[in-house]
Amino acid sequence: MASSKVSSMLLFLFLLVLVFHQMDKALGEQIQLSNRKLKETGHHQQLTAGQRRVLARFDHKRAADWIQSPAVSDQMSLIKQLRQRTSAPIKDVKASLVECNWDIEAAQKDLRKRGKVLASKKSSRTAAEGMLAVAQNDGKVAVIELNCETDFVARNDIFQYLALAMAKRALLVEDSSHPFSGVFPFGPELLEELKLNLDHPKVNGETTVSNAVTEVAAIMGENVRFRRGFLLSKPSAGVLSAYLHTSPQTGLGRIAGIVSLEVDGDNTQLEAIQRVGSEIAMHVVAAKPLFLSKDLAESTGKSQMAVEKMVEGRLRKYYEEVALMEQKFITLVDNLSKEVGSTVKVANFLRVEVGEGIDRLEASDEPVAQSA
Predict the structure, then answer these.
(1) 300-324 pLDDT, tens per residue?
(2) In Å, how far from its chain's centre is CA 278?
(3) Looking at residue 64, what DSSP letter applies?
(4) Residues 118 and 175 in one domain
(5) DSSP letters of 275-313?
């Protein structure tokens, strides 16, 4: 009786060992097949016998997921590549890669979708920092203001690249419904549906201005918005001169001064005129004039109320502060006229500063720009 029980137990143990052996063999064949597939995709991972035994404790789906995951070194490489492509936080990069089974192209698309959702949620936050971008051709100057929440983002090369690209695109705007001479202010609606061809490692391809701003907002993790822009046309005979204050690179700054100088006749000494124009543009940034001339200052209701309360001496000082042509520095124009042998006058000027009037209603914001 005892020997019969021992025989039965030995038979049971033999069968149990045989079953485990067959299971281990089948799992090993599955792992080898998966490894061959992973070799073809560049994510080969050798598993030890111990790892195979651990895998046997999981269900087939979880085991297959583990088998198909790239090696740790490959994972780090993919995270690094996607991080370089998108500048997204490492946590989000890894989450997207895991979600997309370590497919870097699919993960990049997933990150873009996540970023747009995040950008939409942050669109109501105040964006008072940013950059002014200036672009110029033979006929006009374009200035655009691109805002963000922090100075840190304003210094980012992706943000600055977008601002410059938008300013260059604004130069090409030909709006027949808004013909202009002098200064033409415009809002986001004029540019947001226009096409941009971007060529930056992290933002590239053809897209609309609106989508480009949203994509950069997603990358930066802040509210980024295109607030306003200005076009300033050149006189038929004359020059346009621009000065940018606090400029991290050509075409960018926090304060812009632009001056249009008009010359009588076909004067060819444009270099001297351009030089003086640049000096006056710098003066506009520093002095903050509100009007081009005394007459324009007198014609505004606000200044008229102030005038009525002033004695003559204070009145003269007031006009010197707010009217560009009443300021002593503008004697440069008279000297320039003598130098070039033609009458030179300031036709227009424009002063724009990042974030000015940001707490006021957008509809009430007025650019400081005047024409003769």
Answers:
(1) 655 556 656 656 667 778 888 888 9
(2) 28
(3) H
(4) no
(5) HHHHHHHHHHHHH--SBSSHHHHHTSHHHHHHHHT--HH
